[in-house]
Amino acid sequence: MASTITQSSGSRVGVANIAMQCSIGFICGEDGYVSIYEYDGAKKNYRKVRSIKVDESRAQVCGLALSPAEDVLVCTMANNTLTYLPYQQLYFLSTDSVPKEVVAEVIVVVPLDYFCDLL
Hints:
The chain is mainly β and 119 residues long. Helix content is 6%, strand content 45%. It is globular and about 40 Å long.
């Protein structure tokens, strides 16, 4: 039997750029947001339970990684930043603005051909 995805009434609708499995369901990276979906076995569907803003400019989330202990979530963004946040605290963070608990670092991306020119 197929599962369906539902979301709370009034919640923001976004397009998932990337998704990954976690112990309670799955996590989606959207434009500037990370959303968590939990599986409801009784209803046989997934329900959005939380959406956290991780980038003020709403940069696309390009990659997601969750630590094996599921205590740190790392997001790579289209604006060349790496964002990491405490996964266990996502349920307590604000959804309207990037929480202060979110740490972002700028990643300098140098094309490979740059190094070839140096040789």
